[in-house]
Amino acid sequence: MTAKNLQDKTTLHNGVQMPWFGLGVFKVEEGPETISSVKAAIKNGYLSIDTAAVYQNEEGVGEGIRQGVAQSGLKREDLFITSKVWNADLGYEETLAAYEASLQKLGLDYLDLYLIHWPVAGKYKAAWKALEELYKQGRVKAIGVSNFQIHHLEDLMAEAEIKPMVNQVELHPKLSQMELRTFCKQHDIQIEAWSPLMQGELLSHPVLIKIAESHGKSVAQVILRWDLQNGIITIPKSIKEHRMIENSTIFDFTLTQQEMEAINGLNENKRIGPDPDNFDF
């Protein structure tokens, strides 16, 4: 099912509902910039905010949530907040401590989703045990991973009690991750795209420009629509309110099968972020 509006959600394999669309805050500066971005997102109907310990802006996200909730009349439980444990903290006790540190910075009692940020060899299984424990205690609503490839998932699931609910990966038309998406669908793991706009690199692509013009939309809107029609959760980053509004105005048009296939055809397996198998931790 394709999302019909900004508040629409998908149901993860444990029954938790997660918005299809959210705000990412990677490289958003801690302090006023983060606070105003999160506040503006909530004001304009966003329910999902994605941060991470390594972004060093969890305190700003927390303050933006408090201010956004106060001005919107929403409750904390109306929002879906994600954070991630960083590579240096991928032991059992270390991950438990990292979770507490993230909660304290955010000023929250729980997270909706907690992810292992990168698949550091020899470390992610101990971290996963910690996530399973947090989940069993009811301290986090859903647990998952980020940047895991098929072999990482197979390795993790061979010993895990609970399989990941989400795998957040770099995904955009030049890195469409078809094999990984197929694997995750088979195992009921929801794919979520980070850097869906390839940090702006795709905005001048002629194929995308032509499709955008035919719908009276921007290239960014076309790419984000492609995500949703592929059943991919997407979290574009923006610090400008007008851009947040534009990014989320993607529920009033539909890409044709031919257009979807044209965008699928842009894949080059090209990354802008690190390769999960060769990331210098």
Automatic annotation (TrEMBL):
GO terms for molecular function: oxidoreductase activity, acting on the CH-OH group of donors, NAD or NADP as acceptor. The record marks K84 as: Lowers pKa of active site Tyr. The active site is at Y55. InterPro entries: AKR, AKR5G, Aldo/ket_reductase_CS, NAD(P)_OxRdtase_dom_sf, NADP_OxRdtase_dom. Keywords: NADP, Oxidoreductase. Residues 32-267 form the NADP-dependent oxidoreductase domain. Substrate binds at H117. Belongs to the aldo/keto reductase family. This is Aldo/keto reductase. The lineage of its organism: Bacteria, Bacillati, Bacillota, Bacilli, Bacillales.
